[in-house]
Amino acid sequence: MSLYNLAKGLFRFQFRLMGWKIRGLENLPHEGPVILAINHVSLWDPVVAASSIPRQVSYMAKEELFSIPLLGPIIRRLGAFPVKRGQGDMSAIRQSLKVLKDQKVLGLFPEGKRSRTGELQKGLPGIALLMEKGKATVVPVKVSGTKNLLTKGWGKIEVIIGSPLTPEMLKVPKEVEHHREWVTKKIMDALDSLHE
Known about the structure:
Shape: globular
Low-confidence stretches: none
Distance between the termini: 34 Å
Largest sheet: 7 strands, mixed
Strand order of the largest sheet: 1-7-6-2-5-3-4
Oligomer: single chain
């Protein structure tokens, strides 16, 4: 058994004890390149989202995490790869496109950072670039109940998987000037429409 599947099994067991709920699992494509567009309120979000779907998820993670003893090697073995935040990190973009080219699932937090209020923030256009270049389907995923998960998450952890958005569904009208911003807004609107 791989480290990923072992860790996922342990987390799934723990989250079930905590009353974890998943809705919309049928919306996830069984194959092909997929980008999960996930809201971000807690460090637990990537763990909860990845535990909620049957396919393995690869994440970008801030590069500082990879220099932490024990944690760095573990998250790398779990499929994460580093990204330099606040700049166009071509290495992270290339790694993301490789995940999609290999017909796998890439987990992204299009807000770029955690929301302190829980309100959805404006999305960054990098997700539109990766969808376009990777010819990927985007699936909006709303995670809730993860803030202070170990103390206040009991009975509140919920994951809602929205309807998939294919590149064909997000064709930009000719009159739109800023294409990637338009696509990003459509993705964020779909994510914002997911309600508990």
